[in-house]
# Entry
Amino acid sequence: MEEKGTIILEYIIVFFILIVLCSLLISITFTEFQMAGETQNRKEARIISNQISEIINNVNINQNGYSTTYTLPDKINKESYIVKINKTGVYINSHYQLTRSNIIPKNALKNTNYILTSGNTYAFKNINQTIVITQK
# Structure
C-alpha cells in the first residue's frame, strides 16, 4: 500500500514540474513573438524614414523648381506614427520606438521642424535652394 502512495506522489510531483516547465516555455515563446513584432515595426519605420530622407536629398540636389510628392502609409505595423523632419534628419516615432535617417547636412529646410502625419500626401519642393514641405 505504501508503495502505491509513493508512486502516486512521485507522479504528482513530476506532473507539477511539467506544468511549470510548459508555462516557462510558453512565456519565453510569447516574449520572442513580441520582440519579433517590434523588430518588424522598426523595419517598416526605417524603410519609410529612408524613403523620406532620400526624397529630401533628391530635391536638394536637383535644380530650382524641382518637386516630388510622397504619401505616408496610414499605419506602420498596425500602429499610428508621427514623422518629424529637422536639419539633423528624419525621425519616426511609432509606438514609443524612435527611428532616424540622416539627410545631407547642407539641406536648407525652410522651417526648422516639420511634423508629418500618417495617411497624408506631402509635396517636397526646391524653391531657390530651400526645401519646402507642404501638405497636399
